[in-house]
Prior knowledge:
4-stranded antiparallel sheet; alpha+beta; 18 strands
Amino acid sequence: MEDLDYLYNSLIEAHYQVYAYVTEQDFESTYQKVKGSIKKDSLNLLETTTAFQQLISAINNGHTEIQFPGQSYAEYAYTGGTVFPLEIAFEDGKPLIRKNWSTEEQIKTGSELLSVNGVPISDILSKIYPQISAERLYFKQVKLELFSFPRFYWQLFGKQDTFEIELKSNGTISNYTLNAIRVIEDYEMKRDEILNARLELKFLGNSAYINPGNFGGDEQAYRRFIDSAFVEIRNNKSKNLILDLRNNGGGDNSYSDYLISYFADRPFTWNSEFTLKTSSFLKDHVRKNNDTTTRYSKAILSHENGEIFDFKFDDIQPQPLEKRFTGKVYVLVNRQSHSQSAVSASQIQDYNFGEIVGEETGEYPSLYASVFRYKLPNSGIEVQVSKGYIVRVNGSTAEQGVIPDIYIKDYLLDEEDEILEGLLKQLN
């Protein structure tokens, strides 16, 4: 119970604006509800994580979260754990079968999941959604696709040996009895994670295609890849550049800015406004983890706790003209373009550096982010909190994702590449 009180009070102190998407009364009410739901003197790690997620998710901020209980899930997996054998994706809000890992081959992808063990899917989802931090339902569904329904179903409902399911396909309702599948051998080892961005350059006719990977890791290696990629693109005399930011977890703006510098035609920045809130939690984090001599760290440490202040980034200069790509630029996004990848797409759109192709991102391009982390004192559970607010280049704070200039749906997030193929068809 001490950790719950600590979590509640620390969120109020450390978050940039804890009441941006929830009223003070509703946040207090959720806190009391979670507190009242704890009936035992002690909870295990899984039970504690599940309870605390319900409090932090009430803030409705995707970057402020306690992540899926991976340690508990791993322990369950390595002791013979089993899970639900179907993955889902959401299309127009409907949960459709994305992957079938069961032995029932008659189940087709695209079928709508109606119920599990006699419980309507809407009731099941209403229990899962409070575990997921997000600004809106669309983004909760994106995160549920990302971390997967089988995992969340296990977290909320525990181990089950069989599942009675009801599906709807082409207007016909069918019922199946499915056996649970082994977590490791039958599920985790067979599936690919949705976030699959990786460094890649290839040429598709008169178009160069770059996947820059997530914006993190070895920055010098990343810059070497970008440098060499644009040398090859120039040598190939490509007319179009296709930049793939789909299924991308985001990262740091120093990576994305370096990439954009190769096709920007004027100095640019990645936001129109960036403000931070300092706190005792943030200052402690900076002293322990950061170089305190940088301008950024000094700004945090020099302001009073609770104070919100502007932080200005220097403009980024484009590469010299002889290095730059000057053809048409197209940026691929989907609902799984997260964080800095969504911000970068909006940045390119707002400067008219390129056209955005795909579907609306789950993430807002103007968002509460710039996270830091701390651990709860007793359970050791890690809490991620947004300390900053970022406004996209054009100044819009509309509560929506990046809206593509050319709309193409990424149906079921499967292997069929509707977005890239659809763009290439238009270009050709």
